[in-house]
Design a protein that fits this description.
With about 250 residues, this protein is α/β, with parallel strands linked by helices. It has one domain: TIM Barrel (Alpha-Beta Barrel). The chain has eleven helices and eight strands. The longest helix is centred in the last third of the chain and has 18 residues. The radius of gyration is 17 Å and the shape is globular. The protein starts with 6 loop residues before the first strand and ends with a helix.
Length: about 250
Protein backbone atom coordinates (compact mmCIF):
# COMPACT_ATOMS: atom_id res chain seq x y z
CA UNK A 1 0.00 0.00 0.00
CA UNK A 2 1.33 3.44 -0.93
CA UNK A 3 -0.73 5.33 1.67
CA UNK A 4 -2.34 7.63 -0.90
CA UNK A 5 -6.13 7.72 -0.55
CA UNK A 6 -7.74 7.25 -4.00
CA UNK A 7 -9.83 10.00 -5.56
CA UNK A 8 -12.79 9.43 -7.85
CA UNK A 9 -13.78 12.75 -9.45
CA UNK A 10 -16.68 13.25 -11.84
CA UNK A 11 -16.41 16.01 -14.44
CA UNK A 12 -19.96 16.68 -15.55
CA UNK A 13 -18.92 19.09 -18.32
CA UNK A 14 -21.92 20.94 -19.83
CA UNK A 15 -24.54 18.65 -18.32
CA UNK A 16 -27.06 18.85 -15.46
CA UNK A 17 -29.36 21.67 -14.45
CA UNK A 18 -29.63 22.53 -10.76
CA UNK A 19 -32.59 20.19 -10.36
CA UNK A 20 -30.77 17.36 -12.12
CA UNK A 21 -27.71 18.01 -9.96
CA UNK A 22 -29.76 17.64 -6.77
CA UNK A 23 -31.26 14.39 -8.04
CA UNK A 24 -27.93 12.86 -9.01
CA UNK A 25 -26.13 13.80 -5.79
CA UNK A 26 -29.02 12.44 -3.72
CA UNK A 27 -28.79 9.16 -5.65
CA UNK A 28 -25.03 9.04 -5.01
CA UNK A 29 -25.47 9.68 -1.30
CA UNK A 30 -28.11 6.97 -1.06
CA UNK A 31 -25.91 4.55 -2.98
CA UNK A 32 -22.89 5.25 -0.79
CA UNK A 33 -24.82 4.44 2.36
CA UNK A 34 -23.51 5.06 5.86
CA UNK A 35 -19.87 5.17 6.79
CA UNK A 36 -16.79 6.77 5.29
CA UNK A 37 -15.91 5.68 1.74
CA UNK A 38 -12.46 4.26 1.12
CA UNK A 39 -11.89 6.87 -1.57
CA UNK A 40 -12.36 10.63 -1.80
CA UNK A 41 -15.36 11.53 -3.97
CA UNK A 42 -15.61 14.77 -5.97
CA UNK A 43 -18.20 16.00 -8.46
CA UNK A 44 -17.81 18.98 -10.77
CA UNK A 45 -21.16 20.37 -11.95
CA UNK A 46 -21.42 23.35 -14.31
CA UNK A 47 -21.16 26.77 -12.67
CA UNK A 48 -24.93 27.30 -12.58
CA UNK A 49 -25.42 24.10 -10.58
CA UNK A 50 -22.58 24.46 -8.07
CA UNK A 51 -24.71 26.09 -5.36
CA UNK A 52 -27.32 23.33 -5.60
CA UNK A 53 -24.57 20.72 -5.58
CA UNK A 54 -22.86 22.16 -2.51
CA UNK A 55 -26.14 22.40 -0.59
CA UNK A 56 -27.16 18.84 -1.46
CA UNK A 57 -23.74 17.35 -0.72
CA UNK A 58 -23.48 19.05 2.68
CA UNK A 59 -22.87 16.58 5.52
CA UNK A 60 -22.03 13.84 3.01
CA UNK A 61 -18.68 12.45 1.83
CA UNK A 62 -19.08 14.21 -1.54
CA UNK A 63 -16.97 17.27 -2.31
CA UNK A 64 -17.72 19.76 -5.09
CA UNK A 65 -15.31 21.16 -7.68
CA UNK A 66 -15.58 23.82 -10.34
CA UNK A 67 -14.64 22.98 -13.92
CA UNK A 68 -12.52 26.08 -14.54
CA UNK A 69 -11.63 29.55 -13.23
CA UNK A 70 -9.97 32.78 -14.35
CA UNK A 71 -6.58 33.71 -12.93
CA UNK A 72 -7.41 37.36 -12.23
CA UNK A 73 -9.07 38.24 -8.92
CA UNK A 74 -11.62 40.56 -10.58
CA UNK A 75 -12.05 42.81 -13.58
CA UNK A 76 -13.66 43.30 -16.95
CA UNK A 77 -13.69 39.64 -17.98
CA UNK A 78 -17.24 38.99 -19.15
CA UNK A 79 -18.33 35.41 -18.64
CA UNK A 80 -15.41 34.45 -16.41
CA UNK A 81 -15.38 33.35 -12.77
CA UNK A 82 -12.58 34.05 -10.29
CA UNK A 83 -11.03 31.68 -7.78
CA UNK A 84 -12.57 33.65 -4.92
CA UNK A 85 -16.01 33.23 -6.49
CA UNK A 86 -15.46 29.48 -6.84
CA UNK A 87 -14.37 29.22 -3.21
CA UNK A 88 -17.26 31.43 -2.08
CA UNK A 89 -19.70 29.09 -3.85
CA UNK A 90 -18.50 26.26 -1.60
CA UNK A 91 -16.10 24.39 -3.86
CA UNK A 92 -13.04 22.69 -2.43
CA UNK A 93 -11.42 21.80 -5.77
CA UNK A 94 -11.14 23.19 -9.28
CA UNK A 95 -10.31 21.40 -12.54
CA UNK A 96 -7.56 23.26 -14.38
CA UNK A 97 -6.18 22.68 -17.87
CA UNK A 98 -8.67 20.08 -19.03
CA UNK A 99 -7.95 19.14 -22.63
CA UNK A 100 -11.28 20.59 -23.79
CA UNK A 101 -10.31 23.94 -22.27
CA UNK A 102 -6.96 23.71 -24.04
CA UNK A 103 -8.46 22.59 -27.36
CA UNK A 104 -11.58 24.75 -27.63
CA UNK A 105 -11.02 27.74 -25.34
CA UNK A 106 -7.39 28.65 -25.77
CA UNK A 107 -5.86 27.46 -22.50
CA UNK A 108 -2.08 27.27 -22.77
CA UNK A 109 0.59 25.92 -20.44
CA UNK A 110 1.15 29.49 -19.30
CA UNK A 111 -2.50 30.33 -18.55
CA UNK A 112 -2.96 26.94 -16.89
CA UNK A 113 -0.03 27.84 -14.62
CA UNK A 114 -1.73 31.14 -13.72
CA UNK A 115 -4.98 29.29 -12.96
CA UNK A 116 -3.24 26.73 -10.74
CA UNK A 117 -1.62 29.56 -8.77
CA UNK A 118 -4.88 31.52 -8.48
CA UNK A 119 -6.78 28.47 -7.24
CA UNK A 120 -4.19 27.70 -4.61
CA UNK A 121 -4.12 31.30 -3.38
CA UNK A 122 -7.88 31.04 -2.82
CA UNK A 123 -7.49 27.84 -0.81
CA UNK A 124 -8.74 25.57 -3.60
CA UNK A 125 -7.11 22.29 -4.57
CA UNK A 126 -6.34 22.25 -8.30
CA UNK A 127 -6.95 19.10 -10.29
CA UNK A 128 -4.22 19.88 -12.81
CA UNK A 129 -4.82 18.10 -16.12
CA UNK A 130 -2.35 17.19 -18.83
CA UNK A 131 -2.05 14.66 -21.63
CA UNK A 132 -1.08 14.05 -25.23
CA UNK A 133 -3.16 14.01 -28.41
CA UNK A 134 -3.35 11.02 -30.73
CA UNK A 135 -1.04 12.78 -33.18
CA UNK A 136 1.52 13.40 -30.45
CA UNK A 137 1.33 9.77 -29.31
CA UNK A 138 1.75 8.44 -32.84
CA UNK A 139 4.74 10.75 -33.33
CA UNK A 140 6.34 9.26 -30.17
CA UNK A 141 6.23 12.63 -28.42
CA UNK A 142 4.28 11.48 -25.34
CA UNK A 143 6.98 12.02 -22.74
CA UNK A 144 8.11 15.31 -24.29
CA UNK A 145 4.56 16.67 -24.27
CA UNK A 146 3.53 15.65 -20.77
CA UNK A 147 6.86 16.78 -19.31
CA UNK A 148 6.47 20.20 -20.93
CA UNK A 149 2.91 20.54 -19.63
CA UNK A 150 3.96 19.43 -16.15
CA UNK A 151 7.00 21.70 -15.86
CA UNK A 152 5.33 24.79 -17.30
CA UNK A 153 2.06 24.22 -15.48
CA UNK A 154 3.78 24.00 -12.10
CA UNK A 155 6.41 26.69 -12.61
CA UNK A 156 6.67 28.82 -9.47
CA UNK A 157 3.99 26.80 -7.65
CA UNK A 158 4.48 25.93 -3.99
CA UNK A 159 4.87 22.15 -3.92
CA UNK A 160 5.53 21.78 -0.21
CA UNK A 161 2.07 20.33 0.56
CA UNK A 162 1.15 17.26 -1.52
CA UNK A 163 -2.44 17.32 -0.27
CA UNK A 164 -2.92 20.76 -1.86
CA UNK A 165 -2.44 19.46 -5.41
CA UNK A 166 -3.88 16.73 -7.62
CA UNK A 167 -2.49 15.82 -11.05
CA UNK A 168 -4.66 14.16 -13.69
CA UNK A 169 -3.21 12.40 -16.72
CA UNK A 170 -5.82 12.35 -19.47
CA UNK A 171 -4.70 11.13 -22.89
CA UNK A 172 -6.74 13.34 -25.21
CA UNK A 173 -7.32 10.47 -27.64
CA UNK A 174 -9.13 8.51 -24.91
CA UNK A 175 -11.54 11.23 -23.75
CA UNK A 176 -15.12 10.59 -24.81
CA UNK A 177 -13.99 8.16 -27.52
CA UNK A 178 -14.59 4.89 -25.70
CA UNK A 179 -10.88 4.15 -26.08
CA UNK A 180 -8.94 3.68 -22.87
CA UNK A 181 -5.20 3.50 -22.34
CA UNK A 182 -4.22 0.03 -21.26
CA UNK A 183 -3.17 -0.26 -17.61
CA UNK A 184 0.40 -0.70 -18.86
CA UNK A 185 0.24 2.47 -20.99
CA UNK A 186 -1.34 4.50 -18.19
CA UNK A 187 1.08 3.22 -15.53
CA UNK A 188 4.07 4.05 -17.74
CA UNK A 189 3.03 7.71 -17.94
CA UNK A 190 1.96 7.93 -14.30
CA UNK A 191 5.29 6.52 -13.22
CA UNK A 192 7.09 8.98 -15.48
CA UNK A 193 5.10 11.92 -14.07
CA UNK A 194 5.85 10.86 -10.49
CA UNK A 195 9.54 10.64 -11.34
CA UNK A 196 9.47 14.11 -12.90
CA UNK A 197 7.65 15.50 -9.87
CA UNK A 198 10.58 14.41 -7.74
CA UNK A 199 12.80 16.82 -9.65
CA UNK A 200 10.24 19.63 -9.76
CA UNK A 201 9.30 19.35 -6.10
CA UNK A 202 10.85 16.65 -3.94
CA UNK A 203 10.78 12.91 -3.44
CA UNK A 204 8.43 13.41 -0.50
CA UNK A 205 6.03 15.46 -2.60
CA UNK A 206 6.13 13.05 -5.53
CA UNK A 207 5.49 10.04 -3.30
CA UNK A 208 2.45 11.62 -1.67
CA UNK A 209 0.76 13.63 -4.45
CA UNK A 210 -2.14 11.82 -6.08
CA UNK A 211 -2.13 11.30 -9.84
CA UNK A 212 -5.46 10.41 -11.46
CA UNK A 213 -6.18 8.76 -14.78
CA UNK A 214 -8.84 10.22 -17.08
CA UNK A 215 -10.10 8.85 -20.36
CA UNK A 216 -13.21 6.68 -20.85
CA UNK A 217 -13.10 5.27 -17.32
CA UNK A 218 -15.91 2.79 -16.68
CA UNK A 219 -16.91 0.43 -13.86
CA UNK A 220 -15.49 -2.44 -15.92
CA UNK A 221 -11.94 -1.05 -16.14
CA UNK A 222 -11.58 0.89 -12.88
CA UNK A 223 -10.15 -1.82 -10.69
CA UNK A 224 -7.55 -2.87 -13.24
CA UNK A 225 -6.39 0.71 -13.73
CA UNK A 226 -6.27 1.52 -10.03
CA UNK A 227 -4.30 -1.62 -9.27
CA UNK A 228 -1.35 0.06 -10.97
CA UNK A 229 1.09 1.38 -8.37
CA UNK A 230 1.15 5.00 -9.53
CA UNK A 231 -2.54 5.46 -10.45
CA UNK A 232 -4.35 7.01 -7.50
CA UNK A 233 -7.85 7.39 -8.85
CA UNK A 234 -9.84 8.57 -11.83
CA UNK A 235 -11.15 11.73 -13.42
CA UNK A 236 -14.40 10.46 -14.90
CA UNK A 237 -16.41 12.06 -17.70
CA UNK A 238 -19.53 10.48 -19.18
CA UNK A 239 -19.75 7.66 -16.65
CA UNK A 240 -20.10 10.20 -13.83
CA UNK A 241 -23.46 11.39 -15.17
CA UNK A 242 -25.35 8.27 -14.06
CA UNK A 243 -25.41 7.26 -10.41
CA UNK A 244 -25.10 3.52 -11.05
CA UNK A 245 -22.06 3.95 -13.29
CA UNK A 246 -20.31 6.39 -10.97
CA UNK A 247 -21.03 4.25 -7.93
CA UNK A 248 -19.61 1.26 -9.83
CA UNK A 249 -16.40 3.19 -10.43
CA UNK A 250 -16.24 4.16 -6.76
CA UNK A 251 -16.70 0.48 -5.86
CA UNK A 252 -13.83 -0.38 -8.19
CA UNK A 253 -11.56 1.99 -6.31
CA UNK A 254 -11.92 0.09 -3.05
Amino acid sequence: MNGRRPIIAGNWKMHKTSRETVTLIRELIEGLGAGIPACEIIVAPPFTSIAAGVATAANSPILVAAQNLHWEASGAFTGEVSAAMVEDAGCTHVIVGHSERRQYFGDTDETVNLKVAAGMRAGLIPIFCLGETLEEREANRIFEVVKRQLVRGLQGIDLSEPDRMVVAYEPVWAIGTGRTATPEQAQEIHGFLRSELTGIGSAGFANRVRILYGGSVKPSNTRELLNCPDIDGALVGGASLKADDFLGIIEGAI
